[in-house]
């Protein structure tokens, strides 16, 4: 048989191809077409039927022995605290394996602390503008060191997303594990940077005020790190997370009260100023420094004017309050439920079968 003997099959008159305009050519178009198809509707109906049947079985467990209820009647296989314990152990092991990132962060804190301390070495009492700028820069420097949280969160995202999709643990246990295991590195990083900058630049020589300065840097670092981690979880790719992190962090710094005064911010956008951890840190650090006895003398010698520290506070802080609001900022910035945004695997039935392909 030669090639010339091969003939095309007769045309099928019943075969009708769709026009090219209706063929999905992108991922989003394919997803949209799939969700409009009868196959997707049938899968959703099957999943709902399975869930309804499973709910009847779970309801029937309520009439059984308490031991059986404990084992089979809940949404998860163990208690919330047992899952938290397991996730804490797993996250600790993951952090321990990633020694390179932790060592790099601590080494960066040493180098930047020496550089900043050398540039602003032994500031005088009258250089209050430079001291406020230094405090804001310290917060900014440590905050951007938390940029590494994006890469760490994205590395864990596929595994955590799959586990959460199959309801292997409550989402709060994983959030707690990630937060608790990040504390040692943040505490040590903030302490190294605070020791070098605080004493080299001649802040008030008081142990209590140094500890408060360290705590302020730590809480600010924790807030921004949690924000970066939340951005990583709600983003599909690293490029999206990094693209979001830049403008968000830049906006928080811009509205921190130093680059632009609070009185110059329009009322409709003032909420960013109160949301920014940089604004709280700047005011709290100024209060910590200028309310000390070092600034009790009048601004002009032999005058009855108000104390020097109050003048500085009136100029830069404008609102003299307590330190309490600053400690509320990390709670406001912590992600409430970022892992629930991981919809890579789609909804699953109670039997662990994914309804999305």
Characterize this entry briefly.
The protein is mainly alpha-helical and 357 residues long. It has helices spanning 27-35, 38-61, 66-72, 80-97, 99-119, 128-145, 148-165, 171-200, 207-234, 238-254, 270-275, 277-290, 308-316, 324-333.
What would you report as the Rg, rounded to the nearest angstrom? 29 Å
N- to C-terminal distance: 45 Å
Oligomer: single chain
Total strands: the figure is: 0
Average predicted confidence as pLDDT: 76
Shape: elongated
How would you sum up the major sheet? none
Counting structural domains, the number is 2
Instruction: Please state the structural category.
Output: mainly alpha
Mind explaining what this structure looks like?
By secondary structure, the protein is an all-alpha fold. The protein is built from 14 helices and no strands. It has helices spanning 27-35, 38-61, 66-72, 80-97, 99-119, 128-145, 148-165, 171-200, 207-234, 238-254, 270-275, 277-290, 308-316, 324-333. Helix 5 runs antiparallel to helix 6.
How is the secondary structure organized here?
Blueprint: H1 27-35, H2 38-61, H3 66-72, H4 80-97, H5 99-119, H6 128-145, H7 148-165, H8 171-200, H9 207-234, H10 238-254, H11 270-275, H12 277-290, H13 308-316, H14 324-333
Question: Which keywords apply here?
Answer:
64% helix, disordered C terminus, 0% strand, 357 residues, mainly alpha
